[in-house]
Automatic annotation (TrEMBL):
InterPro entries: AAA_22 (IPR049945), P-loop_NTPase (IPR027417), Sig_transdc_resp-reg_C-effctor (IPR016032), TPR-like_helical_dom_sf (IPR011990), Tscrpt_reg_LuxR_C (IPR000792), WH-like_DNA-bd_sf (IPR036388)
Gene Ontology process terms (BP): regulation of DNA-templated transcription
Pfam families registered for this protein in UniProt: AAA_22 (PF13401), GerE (PF00196)
UniProt superkingdom: Bacteria
Protein name as annotated: LuxR family transcriptional regulator
GO molecular function: ADP binding; DNA binding
Amino acid sequence: MADGAGSLSGWSPDPTEVTSYVGRDVETGEARRLLEASSLVTLTGPGGVGKTRLAWRVAAAHREATADEVVFVSLAELREPALLVPTVANVLGFGDRSAKPAIEVVVEALQASRLLLVLDNCEHLVDSCAWFADTVVRACPQVTVLATSRQSLGVAGERVLPVPPLAIPEQGDSFERAVNDESVRLFVDRATAVAPSFRLTESDTEPLIRLCRRLDGLPLAIELAAVRARALSLRQLADRLDKQFSVLTKDRRGRPERHETMRALIDWSHDLCTGPERLLWARASVFSGSFDLDAAEQVCSGGELPGERVLEVVDGLLDKSILLREEYPGGVRYRMLESVREYGVDRLRETGGTADLRKRHRDWFAELAGRYATEWLETDQLAWIGRWRREHANLRVALDHCTGTPEDAVVGLRMLRDVKEFWIVRGLNTEGRMWVRRLDEAAGPGVPERAHGLWLSGFLALVQGDMPAHRCMLDRAAAEAEASGDELAAAYVLHVRAYAALIGNDMPEASRLFGTAIDLFRAHGDEGADLWASYNHGLAVWLDGDIDHGRAVLAEAVERCERRGEVFWRGWALWSRAAAEYLQGDLAVASRCCEQVLRLHERVDDRVVVGFTLTVLAGCAARTGRPNRAAILQGAAMDVWRTVGAWPTRYEAFTEPLQTDTDTVTAALGWEVAIKEFADGAAMPIGDAIAYALEERSPEPPKQAAQVLTKRETEIAHVVAEGLTNQEIADRLGIARRTVDTHIDHILTKLGYSNRVQVATWVTRTADQA
């Protein structure tokens, strides 16, 4: 029983964003002050002013000061407003197995979380981001949202911090004074990076001041100009900028607006590119996010840019900082800063080549999807899943292109079918259903590929518990498969119907349908579907009463996966064996299978199978006289289930056994102890929970209060001990009353206290101990 789930994405700085922080101390401090006073802060400013980099810095400072979790969600690559909430949920690691609106799942999961959520590049989704941020901060008192956008979100209570350009020197400033300005420091930092011998001398003062003032203190403009320090002296660079800007300001008074300054700098970079480099710049703008060399050679070559020259031209654009280089386990990829990519989009549009390039982009990813479908069981599955994660933004753009005409929709439906495991493994249920709906609407009548899209949508609806949509999609898929004579699509329909019967505890029907589907899969040579159905078939046969046959089917499924090097279905086959043994067999074997699943999780990263596995291990512990361990594991399992948006009791075969195990544990421990152990398990991070389940570590002893409280909470605890009210504390510390209320709630929770007198006693005691 698997649909997959995304992993919980912990926060770490992006090295391309935090290579060198220059300046911004004032803005960082002001942003942190605003975050203390409001649950929503938006950094605004034009493209290239450094909003993203400032957000990274503020987030890093916030985490260091508070120990709060920080999650950074980049929205630059997202074009579909309907995917905003699922995208945030996926980055947070929250599953998509609920029929409830995604916003409800996210809010429920975040209500008890202490979190700084950074939404970067909101301007093209401003209405959706405003609604989402407002909903979250209203419902989740311990969540703070930091947004970056070219305009404010316009939400009540939002604090807006305009991000100004970096400080620039004044005409006539001394060398000593000029070199301390932020814009100069950034220029020197970046110039030194590309030309290690670069040095400033006092004779550089005049051209240095002239250059930084020309660039208006815009960080991106400064970085683009600094690349030229490798080939030009500072005076040559300033002179050339003067000529470039004289064209811009001709026939107008005063200095250009800052967005025109930025455009002029990118114009200048464009003018300095060779013809093939300009061509590649424009053509590569069709990619969303990053892309690799193979994609660039196939999509961007042609005419003046033959395929064999693409690598050389890529190298030239890297040298000019138009392209940025990123390394991944699978190789090197390239991307553009959003302002640079937007410039390329404009250039491509001017040539009238957008439609052709988007089609070539779509065709490349359609071919890639076809290769994936062929090689899924033949090569490294984890490498393929990793690649599609990196290509997700490009896949979205390609599928969006397919919604334009009925002919393109057929290609899109074929792509959905080819990468079906991607939606399932990643748990992208809502998004997968959305693409099926859009492509189904765009396609003409009588399209054979439609049946495959419909059964996939029916399956995704099933794992979300949306039974009306599930039945509707399956009925339509069956009719389309029959009309087109597509036996393979009909087999998938049977497989999904069998899955529904398994969830509903109708084991005879599930066994019969899985068996029929497997025969058809084998007749058509679809081994991936065969493996997927086989472990479910084995579980259904076992729970239908034929234990020996079920055990044999499951053992064969595991062995076939291992022989193939298959990892994803193997984890679910092992879990199916564990579940069957737990329900009707050998608890020791069930535990050993669960351990194998958890060790495999380190490679596969599937939170849903972890939830199922911890649930089974908790049951095994309950039935073998280890009630404390059972309660801790059950708490850990329930926390995982909460984040994926589902509960094991949706699977009817588990309902009664889980209740029995719970009764056993509470009878052995008593309600008070059982609840404490359960809470301890629920509080464990998933990595710690897995280590505990594998008996590689014991639960952490409770931390001393002084280690748990943040600096701000410790400060407030001491003021509480003075007898001040919350409003008086807010007035003294210069923060919002709401912030004080939240901090005091945190203090009481962390110390395990119920009133302020206990906090005051703790403060006195810790002072005496010191």
